[in-house]
From TrEMBL:
It comes from Punica granatum. Its EC number is 2.3.2.27. SUPFAM superfamilies: ARM repeat, RING/U-box. Residues 9-46 form the U-box domain. This is U-box domain-containing protein.
Length: 358
């Protein structure tokens, strides 16, 4: 009678949760979970051999706690390994999403951004942005948010901002997300990224050409828009209003100026100042007739007086509001009691001196 084979069952506590192999060099971290150092290092040395499940485990490992993130960021060539995943041809979207998730977690660790900056300007890392673009277009909602955050963190120096800003497909994808997605967390992340990129005239002009202004108008006017997203949308309107193309787009949009006006008492001081500056520029500096008429008919004088009252005795916002009240004097305002829809004219007199705020 043949001897039966002996099977030994290895307890799960002795197996690495990433590779499922028996651990040879265990590393216990703050979560209480133990990993095999060699499993992580093997993945870093040969990231192309890792599958969807392994990448997801690496992403989960990174998300657990700060100690895990520091551990991964400090491993030699860890950042390079993650970027190699993002630049390889034909990568699965799930793997790319996990790699983006890892980057999102470790980018704030000491020295990581600098290592990425040195790599992405190299020609052999050109496909990094193609992978980010694929997530922005086809990824899950959370991955899109993480991709926007990763791009913003990378865009912390002038060279990186220029590199990203030159990718028209990325700008187009970001504007498309604002146009088609309703998630406030995503809108906030995308707007924050666009603000960080909008440092050159060419980028702002591209965004205007892509139809950003009507989208910003909708975001600001939507009562369901949370204040952080509304504040960033107002800031973007302020940024593009510095361009002739931006002012034309604001003038042609039937709701943009009024949307900004109606948000003034609902946003913090910085956004309020930027919103008033937009109205001041359109109505006082450039004397746009269409914008003056819309703001006047939207009871703009009364609303601006309320803003002035909230500003105390002095300040640039109060001076700009005073200028606006003077310019809007005599513009027809909608009167609900009027059968024609247009009632009395605003007849408020003011002695405010015309002052250029900038």
């Amino acid at each position: 009678m043949g001897r039966e084979e002996l099977y030994i069952t290895v307890p799960s506590l002795f197996r690495c949760p990433i590779s499922l192999d028996v651990m040879k060099s265990p590393v216990s971290l703050c979560t209480g979970v133990t990993y095999d150092r060699s499993s992580i290092q093997h993945w870093l040395e040969e990231p192309q051999a890792a599958g969807v499940d392994e990448f997801e485990k690496i992403a989960q490992f990174t998300s657990y706690c700060e100690e895990n993130r520091r551990f991964l960021a400090n491993l030699p060539d860890s950042v390079e390994a993650i970027l190699r995943v993002l630049v390889r041809k034909g990568g699965q979207i799930e793997v790319i999403e996990s790699a983006v998730r890892v980057l999102d977690w470790i980018l704030l660790e000491n020295g990581v951004r600098e290592r990425i900056h040195r790599l992405i300007v190299r020609s052999d890392y050109e496909k990094f942005f193609d992978s980010i673009l694929s997530v922005l277009r086809n990824g899950r909602l959370g991955s899109k948010v993480q991709s926007a955050r990763v791009l913003e963190l990378i865009a912390s120096n002038a060279e990186s901002r220029r590199t990203i800003g030159e990718k028209e497909a990325i700008l187009s994808a970001l504007v498309h997300l604002l146009r088609t997605e309703s998630d406030m967390l995503l809108a906030d992340a995308v707007l924050s990224l666009l603000i960080s990129l909008s440092v050159t005239r060419s980028i702002k002009a591209q965004l205007v050409q892509l139809g950003l202004v009507p989208i910003l108008s909708r975001i600001i006017s939507d009562p369901n828009t949370a204040n952080p997203a509304a504040e960033r949308a107002i800031k973007m309107v302020h940024l593009v209003s510095a361009l002739a193309e931006g002012r034309i787009a604001i003038s042609e949009d039937p709701t943009c100026a009024v949307a900004v006006l109606d948000r003034l008492m609902k946003v913090p001081r910085a956004a309020k100042e930027e919103g008033v500056a937009v109205l001041w520029g359109m109505c006082c500096a450039y004397r746009d007739g269409r914008v003056k008429e819309r703001v006047g008919r939207a009871n703009g004088v009364t609303k601006l007086l309320v803003v002035m009252q909230s500003e105390g005795d002095a300040g640039v916002v109060k001076r700009m509001c005073g200028d606006l009240v003077k310019v809007l004097r005599g513009v027809a305002m909608v009167d609900p009691s009027s059968s024609s829809g247009y009632g009395r004219l605003a007849s408020l007199e003011t002695k405010t001196t015309h002052i250029r705020p900038y």
